[in-house]
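User: My instructor asked us to take a sequence, write out its structure as tokens, and then describe one feature of it. I'm not sure where to start. Here is the sequence I was given:
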Amino acid sequence: MPTLNELLQIKTADDVLAILLQKLQARGFPLTALQSGTDYRTILESEAASIAEAWSLIPSIAAAGSIETSEGTWLDYVNFDRYRLERNRSTFERRRVRLTCETGFGPYTIADFQLWTQQNIFGGARAQSQTGGTLADGDTLDLEFKFEFAGKQLAAALDTLLTPLPGVSITVVQEAMLEQGVDQESDEAYRERGRLRWPALSTIGAPADIFRAWAREADPSVTKVRILDQHPRGQGTVDVVLSGEGGISAGAVSAADAFIRARMLQTTDLLVYAATPKAVTLTGTVTVKSGFVSSAQTQGAANLVRLQTLAPIGGSNGNAYRSAFIEALFVANVLDVNLTTPSTNVALPPQRFSRSPTTSRMTR
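Assistant: Let's start with the prediction itself. The structure tokens for your sequence are:
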């Protein structure tokens, strides 16, 4: 069976020019004075280039007819036209941060939007306070912070206070995530939601697809879903394991749980919960060409974040592959990556995903 690419062979400007010359010759036009640079040939070449440019759009237009082949804004059109699905946009991550005031320095009256914090790591992002309050002497105060830019953020804690407050420090809070920041939905994730549109309309069919569709529909921060439907806790049980691009908030899990329970068959023993992150620390030496350490650090860190974003819950075949970490660090101008730990692939149970790792040292 021919593929779409085989059916849609585009014409180059040279191909179109040859066709034009053949047509002119067939109609009796003399072609003896069409040397390069002549006015008539220049006009034909310009027309051929314009026609070829229009011809190059044919594969894109044809591909837009299918959810499997359309991309970018064409995919936006197809998914909305057929399924009334809009692409999920990037969202701002919000976290709870606890301020601790040493005795003898307070009280402080903190206004909304007054404070800035930052992740104390290479490439760490900044966040601004959204709420205020009174920080009493020797007491603590929890505030909500929103990251400066939308999208997925590194998992590192907001532990550096940029706004001067003498005697005030930041304490890491458990369950600090209020809303998970996510990047704009990728083509593949958006395409999958379209594929799952039909299963989401019924409780009959492949249960895994039904639960996956409902979980994705419940909250835009749910970008990874793993269905454990082989009786994980005994006969008749189904587990729906959720994650975002770097974790997931308790609110998103609750929303997915409520959304699914309102639609599922009541005979199913369902459990919806967040995947457990497994921290993977990389130690070793990355040797870089002189003068390129900073750019290698930036690109390497970005690749590791991307690796976490793409990694499914439970890893690939139950593993976070060591070779994938090495490949992520082997960016432009890197001469060698000597990774000492992990020394083997990292095993991941079905309910876990690998957390963005860190590198220990880069040398010139």
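For the description part of your assignment, you could build on this observation: The two ends are 53 Å apart (CA to CA). Try explaining in your own words what that tells you about the chain.
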